């Protein structure tokens, strides 16, 4: 497989892990300038955001490991 395509695939999995990590940090991924209003419509709550962040990290790690193992076969 082309090395650029392979590198992009790894970068995509790492990006998912990075976004998941941002979701579980106290600052989060919310707008730095305007913040988030907890009573705002559509706000799903801190536990749900943390759950989604952990899910994104797990998905990214599993995808990255799977990609590496498929490359070595």
How are the SSEs placed, and which strands pair?
Elements: H1 3-24, H2 46-72
Mean pLDDT: 77
If you compute it from the alpha carbons, what radius of gyration comes out, rounded to the nearest whole angstrom? 16 Å
Which range best describes the helical content: under 10%, 10-25%, 25-40%, 40-55%, 55-70% or over 70%? Answer: 55-70%
- 3D shape: elongated
Termini separation comes to 13 Å
- What kind of assembly state do the chains in view correspond to? single chain
Number of E-state strands: 0
**Tally of alpha and pi helices:** 2
Proportion of residues in extended strands: under 5%
Please describe the biggest sheet, giving its number of strands, its sense, and whether it closes into a barrel.
none
What would your notes on this structure say?
- It contains 2 helices and no strands.
- The chain is mainly alpha-helical.
- The longest helix has 27 residues.
- 5% of the residues are buried.
- The mean pLDDT is 77.
How is this structure best summarized?
The protein has 73 residues and is mainly α. 67% of the residues lie in helices and 0% in strands.
Notable traits:
mainly alpha; 0% strand
